[in-house]
Amino acid sequence: MSLSKPVMPLISVFLVLAAAPAVAGPVMDDIKATNSVVCLVSPSAPGFSVPDSKGVFQGFNADFCRMAAAAILGDAGKADIRGVGFSDSMKTIVAGGAHMASRSITRTGTRDADEGMAFVVTTFFDGQGFMVSKKLGVSSARELNGASVCAEDGSTTLLNIADWFGAEGLTYRVENIADKTARLQAFFSGKCDVYASDVTALTADRQLAPNPADYVILPEVISNEPLTLVARPDQAFEAALFWSFQVMLNADSYGVTSANIDEIVADLDQQPPAVKRMFGTDSATTDMAAKLGLPKDWAYQVVKQVGSYGEVFNRHLGVDTPFGLDRKQTPNAQSADGGQMYPYPIR
After folding, report:
1. How many whole angstroms from its chain centre is CA 95?
2. 31-68 pLDDT per residue, tens
3. What's the pLDDT tens digit per position in 126-181?
4. 23-126+226-337 has which CATH code?
5. Residue 159, Ramachandran bin (φ over 0: left; ψ between -120 and 50: alpha; else beta)
6. Where in the chain is the domain with CATH 3.40.190.10?
């Protein structure tokens, strides 16, 4: 029996499928129809997302909302950034009330398995810790036996507390308060001995105290918290987010910034191949644009309007900010510097 006849039809089908561009899904269609990216952030997280004097959110997380708008719509200003509490943010995504969230949501196995949300790319590697008043007189979390702990309802914080205190043989009592403002008020007023959250969130929240110097963050980091962009499921939208972030990481690796990108593009023939593939007029990113339904210059717009990853980190969290973070001393350093920010190849 001959098996040769189906070969040409199969090859034809393969060629058609290989040449076909990715079809935009309902989320990408909605973004283009409304000409905006609805993006959820924390309503008050200094360094990550805080409204300025005009009510416009500024911060590390807010800039990834702008990244999405710059890539998809060509205008970072078309990010509709809204402050929403933690528990409500994921519910809003699932209900279709927003396109994405950039607000320190930890990617976990059970969350990833839930329908209605797609965990796309980790923008910040963090870990959970504890903040206490200096009046409490402790220097280690192992001295917190019997403490009352203010924590966030619906977050991984409660599970981490239970795991760590149990492993250490310590007792504790949780003040489970969903609203962040109320939770901080409870802690600063002395209702709780301890405030538990991600270490960077603790650093931000300490700035909201009447006198930040009265509080100290204990040295123990008790968990791994990969803080990840969350989107409504849509293959084209998820790819646009993921690869926009990779453009920011690659730009960081090659020293391309919002300040020098025009100079680099003007002298593109003299740039490394990887830079040409990002910003050339007939390049990997223009091929991706055709397949994902993005503007041809989407990669340029991301860096020009938002910046490289290093720019965003340093602008909001770096050594010249109240956070004073040396990126090279964190897991968010470039992989070449021993960190976990590993740029994927754009080719």
Report:
1. 21
2. 999 999 999 999 988 999 999 999 999 999 999 999 99
3. 999 999 999 999 999 999 999 999 998 777 889 999 999 999 999 999 998 888 88
4. 3.40.190.10
5. alpha
6. 23-126+226-337, 128-223
Q: In the structure encoding, which two tokens stand for residue 306, read together?
A: 């938002």
For the segment 184-242, what is each residue's pLDDT rounded down to a tens digit? 999 999 999 999 999 988 988 998 999 999 999 999 999 999 999 999 999 999 999 99
Task: Record the pTM.
Answer: 0.87
How many whole angstroms separate alpha carbon 93 and alpha carbon 96? Answer: 5
CATH 3.40.190.10 fits 128-223, yes or no: yes
SS3 for the chain is CCCCCCHHHHHHHHHHHHHCCCCCCHHHHHHHHHCCEEEEECCCECCCEEECCCCCEECHHHHHHHHHHHHHHCCHHHEEEEECCHHHHHHHHHHCCCCEECCCCECCHHHHHCCCCEEEEEEEEECEEEEEEHHHCCCCHHHCCCEEEEECCCCCHHHHHHHHHHHHCCCEEEEECCCHHHHHHHHHCCCCCEEEEEHHHHHHHHCCCCCHHHEEECCCCCCCEEEEEEECCCHHHHHHHHHHHHHHHHHHHCCCCCCCHHHHHHCHHHCCHHHHHHHCCCCHHHHHHHHHCCCCCHHHHHHHHCCCHHHHHHHHHCCCCCCCCCHHHCCCCEHHHCCCECCCCCC
* Torsion sign over Cα 50, 55, 58, 64: positive
**Phi, psi at residue 287, to the nearest 5°?**
-65, -45
**CA 112 to chain CA mean position, Å:** 15
Q: Which of 304, 315, 294 is nearest to 76 (CA)?
A: 304
pLDDT-derived band at 10, boundaries 50, 70, 90:
very low
d(Cα 294, Cα 254) in Å, to the nearest integer?
Answer: 23
Torsion of CA 151, 157, 158, 162, to 10 degrees: -120
